[in-house]
Write a structure and sequence with these properties.
With 231 residues, this protein is mostly helical. Helices cover 51% and strands 0% of the residues. The termini are far apart. The mean pLDDT is 88.
Length: 231
């Protein structure tokens, strides 16, 4: 049964969600907090959308702007800013385990910042998600791939790397492939594939056979002994 917003009075402009909140507050004998002042609003929206505080000039401009769409203009400006793209990219870079160092032993530099910049630019340009997906998973396999599309596949390079003298390079190469399978499954399929690395499980939608079919795709890259950085 579809339930519409309750018929309850709301101070000021309101949408359907506001009416549900107002009803619950009334049921609990609570009241909304007073409206925040403009300086506080400006700080909140700036931190929310860019992770940065507003400049004094931006605060003064918003306080002085008495037009009906003053708030909308602030939000639109922040959404269109490069800083907003950087803010949005941080969530993605966390998911794809981005790091500037290799993660093992000496934790040497990992020269992969072009991939980070590609992700930021993709958010700034509002790249369609299907293209965002294809170029990261297989940008180098597209017909006549551009340099940017090859950089996008840096997604696969965000693994822990160990080329320390004396290590079994084949062992760590396979560790990197397994990491790519697990991360691809987590990010794009919303599945934890790790259990299927070792065995089938009656509650797991992915079989061990399917895990290694995906492994075989990434295993086509010859990376034995590839150093973490190149001069």
């Amino acid at each position: 049964v579809k339930i519409g917003p309750p018929d309850v009075a709301v101070d000021g402009p309101a949408n359907g969600l506001d009416r549900f909140i107002a009803q619950r507050l009334a049921d609990e004998s609570l009241k909304l907090s007073p409206d925040a002042d403009r300086v506080t609003l400006m700080r909140r929206v700036s931190f929310d959308l860019t992770s940065l505080p507003p400049t004094p000039e931006q605060v003064d401009a918003f306080v002085a702007d008495k037009s009906a769409d003053a708030w909308e203009k602030v939000v639109d400006r922040l959404l269109a800013s490069d800083e907003h793209g950087e803010r949005m990219a941080t969530y993605w870079l966390d998911l794809v385990r981005y790091a500037d160092t290799v993660g093992y032993h000496g934790d040497q530099d990992h020269a992969i910042s072009p991939y980070r910049d590609w992700v930021i630019d993709a958010f700034i340009d509002n790249m369609p998600f299907d293209r965002f997906t294809v170029e990261q998973l297989a940008g180098d396999l597209l017909e006549k791939p551009t340099l940017e599309q090859k950089i996008a596949t840096g997604f696969h390079r965000n693994t822990l790397r160990n080329t320390e003298a004396g290590v079994d390079l084949e062992l760590y190469r396979t560790k990197e492939i397994i990491d790519r399978v697990n991360t691809t499954g987590m990010v794009w399929l919303g599945l934890t594939l790790g259990c299927a690395e070792c065995h089938d499980h009656k509650h797991d939608p992915i079989s061990q056979t399917e895990f290694y079919r995906m492994y075989a795709f990434f295993n086509n890259a010859d990376e034995v002994g590839v150093p973490a950085t190149k001069s």
